[in-house]
Amino acid sequence: MSNKVKPYEKKIVNAVIGFMKAKFNFDAKIIVKKKDKDGLIGDVILNNNSVNNNKFYLHFNPDQSYAMMIQALIHELTHVKQISRKELLPSDDYKAVLWRGKEFISASEYKKLFKKYSEYKKLPWEAEAYSNMKKLYKPFLSSKQWTELSGDANIDFIKQNIGEVKMKKSEIREIIKEELQSLNEGKKVYFTMDNLGSAKYSVSFYDGKKTHPDGSDFYGLHLFKNKKKYEAYIKELKSQGYTER
Ligand SMILES: [Zn+2]
């Protein structure tokens, strides 16, 4: 399957983006990509790009019906709105999720909820995304962003045939898989210590992702005897986006 977004697919996705931006009055840079992994409908990630640069990668799965794809996009774009309007944020150290300015849940508790769908969907940002998905599908179909879309045989066909969808629980469950990685990307940090045993220089680094089985951050360790190599290594870490802790 080609992973390139076709022109008519792009038009449909952009119509949903335009509808949501107008509805919730937010602006964000959104880059649309196709997802080829089964079951994955989209993902919106809390990371430096989304939180600080207002830049989002939105994925859609072309293997879904258009009705379902549109609803999934409404779900994802609700999260884009939440992050863009600073309603949903990570704490500075990425160890907790803030909701409307208050610490709501720790990152490790949040990750545990991925396995408990019934609890997960009650999180306030999820509750809003699910409610929008159901509530805004029909208004989207009668919005100008959708009704004025034309000039393409594919789109005309889709518009004539798109129906109502009542999603099954299992289908909705698929949609939340997107968030599995949403907090996994924390900050990339390193710190240094000199004269650690026989090694003259040491660098501990955390890639923002790896955790110990208990959920705490996993630090890698590099030891150097040679100062030049040590300095070159730090330069390399910085170029990959690491900051000193
Ligand atoms: Zn969600």
Shape, principal axes of CA atoms: elongated
Number of domains: 2
What ligand species are in this complex?
Answer: zinc ion
**What percent of the residues sit in helical stretches (DSSP H or I)?**
40-55%
- Order of strands in the sheet with most strands: 8-7-6-9
Question: Using only CA atoms, what is the Rg?
Answer: 21 Å
Order of helices and strands: HEHEHEEEHHHHHHHEEEHE
How many strands, which pairing sense, and closed or not: the largest β-sheet? 4 strands, mixed
Spans of at least 5 consecutive residues whose pLDDT stays below 50 are: 38-42, 180-185
Query: In what range is the share of β-strand residues?
Result: 15-25%
Counted beta strands: 9
Question: Could you report the average pLDDT, rounded to the nearest whole number?
Answer: 79
N/C terminus separation: 43 Å
